[in-house]
Amino acid sequence: MTKTKAWVDAARLRTLPLSVSGILVGSACAFKATHTMSNYWWIFSLAMLTTLLLQILSNFANDYGDGVKGTDNHTRVGPQRAVQSGIISAAEMKKGVIVTAILSLLSAVLLIYVSFGSEHFMTSIFFFVLGVAAVAAAIKYTVGNSAYGYRGLGDLFVFIFFGLVSTLGSYYLYTQSFGWLEILPAIAIGNLSIAVLNLNNMRDRESDQTSGKNTLVVLLGAAKAKIYHYAIVVVALLAIFIYAIVIGLPWHHFFFVIAYLPFIKHLVVVINNKDPKKLDPEMKRVALGTFFLALLFSLALI
């Protein structure tokens, strides 16, 4: 494997569609609420870029953190990581984390300026702090002695940043108002993002437990982790359906429920699963399924 391919693999491109799902839904909800295109495409493009950079930052930091801690070792079930393989050194990956963090912040600052200009100083400060927090959260998942991913808090942070902040934050960028009803689609995207992480942690439960990485799956145990998984997926699908009903979406716009089919099949696979190693393809199914749902739902709203 070449070093260039190793960097591309470390970016984990299959996670990127999932990361922008909240931006798609939040943007569509805002367009339905305002019916305005003022700065819409600038905000949309910069929000997408910022989110993609944060996801890549998180992936690089995860590769670095698990690599230097020895969590990624020969017992790991999933694909070999860049630092683990030795193709990219820990020092090189650390530089990659720093560069991506700087690019993420620069993109966030530009996004804030385009959205609020110089007229809403305190709001701009709040979103800048939120951007810094997002960068810090992306890095601290596995990096450092206080890495929250090793203490069962990964699910909470994924829900906050990839669900609430991504969906409600992007909605606010367009409307400069908080949408209470939009909490429902934010919960949906947040829960489905957790589902991808939970699948990863179910697959790696034994190796994580051995290396001292106390994910929520390790803390719950295999049986309860499955029940938790069913719950978060079902709640996600219900939340977005309820939102569509409450806002009065025309029934012929409910075509987005077509995207529920992969999730129903997915739940059947998880229910019948006996070998955690075979859950690996399900991460791709849920990630792409979430993006497909976000895309169809956004089209239904617009």
Structure commentary:
This protein is mostly helical and 302 residues long. The chain has helices at residues 3-11, 16-19, 21-34, 40-69, 82-85, 90-116, 121-140, 154-175, 183-203, 205-211, 216-220, 222-246, 260-272, 280-301. The protein has one domain (14-301). It contains 14 helices and no strands. It is globular. The model has no long low-confidence stretch (mean pLDDT 88).
Structure, briefly:
The chain has 14 helices and no strands. By secondary structure, the chain is mostly helical. It has one domain.
Draw up the topology in text.
Blueprint: H1 3-11, H2 16-19, H3 21-34, H4 40-69, H5 82-85, H6 90-116, H7 121-140, H8 154-175, H9 183-203, H10 205-211, H11 216-220, H12 222-246, H13 260-272, H14 280-301
Helix pairs in contact: 3-4, 3-8, 3-9, 3-14, 4-6, 4-7, 4-8, 6-7, 8-9, 9-12, 9-14, 12-13, 13-14
Topology pattern, helix = H, strand = E: HHHHHHHHHHHHHH
- State which percent range the strand residues make up: under 5%
**How would you classify the quaternary structure?**
single chain
Domains (count): 1
What distinguishing features does this structure have?
302 residues
